[in-house]
């Protein structure tokens, strides 16, 4: 699969899971240095918001928007993942007075499991996954242009339907 950044094409490494697939498990650390696995949320609806770089305008908008929306949805676990460092993520959250499950995929384990690594940029592709309580992907959006926001309405609609 290929996406663009301001018109320049970039190939994604690996195979992206599709709707209906069992969501690949992963292990990444949160801001408290705790290892978090997708399987930790078994039996819950999980909304995974993937951003290339927390310190950019569109990524900040995506993180804030999903944080606001998810806080209004009972029984939904929001996870925001980027491959920024723990320090960059913690500084961003503190500056915005936001508390969310922010995971740093520094070794790209999540990115490789989900086929989202843009090797030339060493970044994750902007994307959204909704996983139902049985661990199946019920919604997937890999945003074709990195500088565009995801379709929040469709992601939330899928999240509500997954419960």
**Adjacency order of strands in the biggest sheet:** 4-3-7-6-5-10-11
| Number of E-type strands | 11
> What is the CA-based Rg, rounded?
14 Å
Distance N to C terminus? 30 Å
Low-confidence stretches: none
Q: What's the level 1 CATH class?
A: Alpha Beta
Number of domains: 1
The CATH homologous superfamily name equals Glutaredoxin
Helicity level:
25-40%
| Helix/strand/pairing category | alpha+beta
What is the subunit organization of this protein?
Answer: single chain
> Major beta sheet, specifics?
7 strands, mixed
Q: State the CATH topology.
A: Glutaredoxin
Key descriptive features of the protein:
oxidoreductase; 4-stranded antiparallel sheet; 163 residues; 7-stranded mixed sheet; alpha+beta
Describe the protein in words.
The protein is an alpha+beta fold and 163 residues long. It is globular and about 40 Å long. The chain has one domain (2-162): Glutaredoxin (3-Layer(aba) Sandwich). It has 4 helices and 11 strands; from the N terminus they run βββββαβαβαββββα. The protein has helices spanning 57-70, 86-96, 109-113, 152-162, and strands at 2-5, 8-13, 27-30, 35-37, 45-50, 76-82, 101-104, 117-118, 123-124, 127-131, 137-142. The longest helix is centred in the middle third of the chain and has 14 residues, at 57-70. InterPro entries: AhpC/TSA, Thioredoxin-like_sf, Thioredoxin_domain, TPX, Tpx_Peroxidase_subfamily. Keywords: Antioxidant, Disulfide bond, Oxidoreductase, Peroxidase, Redox-active center. Residues 17-163 form the Thioredoxin domain. One of its GO terms (molecular function) is peroxidase activity. It comes from Carnobacterium inhibens.
